Amino acid sequence: MGIIRARKLGFDYYRYDENGQVREASHAVRNVDLDIEAGQFAAVLGHNGSGKSTLAKHINALLMPTEGTLWVDGMDTRQENELWRIRQRAGMVFQNPDNQIIGTVVEEDVGFGPENMGVPTEDIWKRVDESLKAVGMTAYRYHSPNKLSGGQKQRVAIAGVMAMRPRCIVLDEPTAMLDPGGRKEVLKALRELNQKEQVTVILITHYMEEVVYADRVFVMDQGELVMQGTPREIFSHVEEMRKCGLDVPQVTMLAHELRKSGMQLPEDILTREELVDAICQ
Amino acid sequence: MIRDITLGQYYPADSVLHRLDPRTKFVGTLLFVISLFIFHTFPGYGAATVFLAGMIGLSKVPVSFMFRGLKAIFVILLLTVVFNMLLTPGQVIWQLGFLKITWEGLMQAGRMAIRLVYLVVGSSIMTLTTTPNQLTDGLENLMGPLNRIHVPVHEIAMMMSIALRFIPILMEETDKIMKAQMARGADFESGNIMQKAKNMIPLLVPLFVSAFRRANDLAMAMEARCYHGGEGRTQMKPLKYKGRDYAAYGILAGYLALGIAFRIWGI
Ligand SMILES: Nc1ncnc2c1ncn2[C@@H]1O[C@H](COP(=O)(O)OP(=O)(O)OP(=O)(O)O)[C@@H](O)[C@H]1O
Ligand SMILES: [Mg+2]
Question: Considering only CA atoms, which of A210, A201, A103 is closest in space to residue A156?
Answer without folding.
Answer: A103
